[in-house]
Amino acid sequence: MKSEANCLIAQSGGPTTVINASLAGVIEKALNGTNIHQIYGAINGIQGVIDDNLLNLTDIFKDNDSTIQQLKTTPAMYLGSCRYKLSDFTENISDYSIIFQTLKKYSVKYFLYIGGNDSMDTVDKLSSYGKSINSDIKFIGIPKTIDNDLECIDHTPGFGSAAKYIAASILEIAHDTYIYDIESVTIIEIMGRNAGWLTAAAALARNEYSAAPHLIYLPEKPFSTGRFVTDIKEEFTRRKHVIVAVSEGVKDIAGTYISAESAKTDQFGHVMLSGTGKYLEGLIKHTIGCKVRSIELNVLQRCAAHSSSLTDIEEAFQLGQYGLDAALKDESGVMVTLNRTSNFPYTVEYGTIPINEVANLEKKIPIDWINEAGNDITNELIEYIKPLIQGEAPIKYIDGLPVYLSVDHLIKKK
Question: In which pathway does it act (predicted)?
């Protein structure tokens, strides 16, 4: 048996309802039948490693299975997050020196980072630097993102639950809208800068009596404001109420975002968008003059654990376990992944993929899954998303509200 070694876990990027399920998967695996002596969690991602701000997870979760189960259904990040971009180590080694000093201080042999595209970039850089200095530390990426835009994986943990929340919300918005005997347009803006997976999930709200959303616009196809107005007018020939789902990142034929775009970008170079729904609301008021309202789901779709998908939770948990398994088998510089093996019945298999095949790439919706007019999606896309929203989370309620694991360690001032 190998000598004792320690494990460090961190989370970063945007929150989801199931990222803590992956954390729970790693913790449970590490506590049962491994040579891991201590499990640490970095507070606020890679910044916590740089700042030597670690939490002893063994002390919190050892011999406490009920706490691990509660962690599985607690939304957002138990360990906190960051959006910190590491420089290339060939240009600036300072962060790497500090990080590896911290890893040595805590005898860390296995480092697992749970996050999205930018987090996989961090894993890739740490792994590459580790190889350059002949470090034996294993670096593993565990995927998450509600955007579902990571390559080399059928779908990302977090997407299924966000999709379920979006579909349920649009069904409820439709019920709210149908009560008035007046022509109206309701525009729902949904996250998605360059990939429209979340907006496409709105189609799951359709049922035998409601066709809402009646129009769906994704960033994968050019958006025309003139065609948008025409589409609304055509819908009014068939119905009194028109409900639209639109991605925040829709662009015109020249590739310019139609939203009221900020000139700013974040530290990873992503354009910071705002105002797509409001812009289109003003357009309809000016051109058609009917009652119109825009709704921005924004962060509401990220951490709605009360509406999470049990399928999503269990897959996230399994990916966490598989990630530690990969590290224990001496894999490094990889992301754990899952591939769909069947749609009917729905089944998946788990594996790993070299991290450099994932980092800084973006998976978009296939064009043939969007209709020719660019205002709806095909049945293939609906059948792709539908299995991912199945099942309800076993969340405990007290006084009518869900009970989540305390994150007091993130709230208190130092």
Answer: Carbohydrate degradation; glycolysis; D-glyceraldehyde 3-phosphate and glycerone phosphate from D-glucose: step 3/4
| Catalytically annotated residue among 95, 124, 147, 231 | 147
Domains 5-146+305-360+392-411 and 159-301 share a fold: yes
- Establish whether 147 is a catalytic residue: yes
Indicate the annotated binding residues for diphosphate: 14
On whether the CB atoms of residues 160 and 144 are closer than 8 A, the answer is no
Percent helix, strand, coil in the chain, to 5, is 40, 20, 40
Residue with tokens 């002949």: 134
C-alpha pair distances (Å), 335 with each of 102, 153, 255, 279, 320: 23, 9, 31, 39, 11
pLDDT beneath 70, residues of the chain:
1-4, 260-274, 413-414
pLDDT in tens, 108-129: 999 999 998 889 999 999 999 9
CATH superfamily, region 159-301: Phosphofructokinase domain (3.40.50.460)
CATH 1.10.443.10: does it fit domain 5-146+305-360+392-411? no
CA atoms within a 13 Å half-sphere pointing along the CA-CB vector of 92: 7
pTM: 0.93
> Which parts are annotated binding residues for Mg(2+)?
117
